[in-house]
Amino acid sequence: MDYKNVTGHIYDIQGYAVHDGPGIRTTVYTKGCPLSCLWCHSPESQKHEFELGYLQVKCLGADICRNACVDACPTGALTRGEPVKALDGSGMIQKAQIDRAKCTRCLKCAGACIPKALYATGWDTTVDEVYDRVIKDRGFFQNGGGITISGGEAMAQFDFTLNLAKRLKDSGIHICLDTTGFAPEKLFAEILPYIDLFLYDIKHMDTVMHKNLVGVGNELILDNARFLSSHGGALQIRVPVIPKLTNRETNLRQTAEFCASLGDGVKLVQLLPYHKTGRMKYERLGWRYKLTNVEPPDDAFMERTLEMFQSFGLNCQLY
Fold first, then answer.
1. Distance between CA atoms of 270 and 40, rounded to whole angstroms?
2. Hey, what CATH class is 52-120 in?
3. Can you tell me the distance from the alpha carbon of 203 to that of 271, in angstroms, rounded to the nearest whole number?
4. Which terminal residue of the chain, N or C, has fewer Cβ atoms less than 10 Å from its own Cβ?
5. What are 143-186's pLDDT values in tens digits?
6. DSSP per residue over the chain, as a string?
7. Every domain range in the chain assigned CATH 3.20.20.70
8. Is the pLDDT at 243 greater than 90, yes or no?
9. Which pLDDT does position 198 carry in this prediction?
């Protein structure tokens, strides 16, 4: 099968992934997403360009590193912070401090940072480089496992995603595409032959509310779900359950009705309760987390929601 060894932006490759499709999988995470979900647990995936992340706990202090990061910064965005106690009790240290307004994301400081407390949120790679990395995990792809191409939104880097899928398809590996569904239908039509299962998000059924929550309306997303299910695509639909935002009974019932209307193309519906695990990532990027007053839904609510989805004849599970 012909493919092109094109370059893409990714921010991670994770082995032994058990929540990104069936079986044990390796997941490739691409950068860039046209949506900006308020509850996004991977904010580093949203922008296509590489950003500066800062895991402050890893900073050894400017004295130990001899101001390597401070001296590397051409705009003065990095300075020595106020003295704080070292975690090992050895004394006081001055950790790096970032003025995000001055930072141009040149990432020179990340290259100079000895403990890698400062880091770039991704790297350039090619289809062949990713293939060579993930094929090493093939022995773990048991019980229907394989490769998942995720994001961000992988369809936003369509040439890279399509050619990676083609390269993997040649090897007989089961391929999942984790997608928001927000891309032109013609692109889904082109990639459909190379994808065994679409992990497909349905975030809200009201398009105005959808735009308020994630930045875009839902018409294209719903239309693409209909297109894929009617053209032989297999869908594993994911429904985020976010208190105060998506958990109203009307919305969840309409979502269940929509999933049921797609027929046999829907292999599984997963209900995803809100969690807080991504909050610390916002601090590393210098972003403000907006859902500080939202708590995860309780187990009883999730069980009732599961029963409601199952009442529509859907194969449904809690994530």
1. 17
2. alpha beta
3. 11
4. N
5. 789 999 999 999 999 999 999 999 999 899 999 999 999 999 99
6. ------EEEEEEEEEEESSSSSSSEEEEEE---S---TT-S-GGGT-SS--EEE-GGG---TTTTTTHHHHH-SSS-EEEEEEEE-TTSS-EEEEEEE-TTT-----HHHHH-SS-SEEES-EEEEHHHHHHHHGGGGGG--TT-EEEEESS-GGGGHHHHHHHHHHHHTTT-EEEEEE-S-S-HHHHHHHGGG-SEEEEE---SSHHHHHHHHSS-SHHHHHHHHHHHHTT--EEEEEEE-TTTT--HHHHHHHHHHHHHTGGGEEEEEEEE---TTHHHHHHHTPPPS-TT--PPPHHHHHHHHHHHHTTT--EEE-
7. 7-49+123-318
8. yes
9. 98
Which pLDDT value is given to residue 90?
A: 79
Give residue 1's pLDDT: 78
pTM greater than 0.90: yes
Mean local confidence (pLDDT), 219-230: 98
| For range 287-293, the mean pLDDT | 94
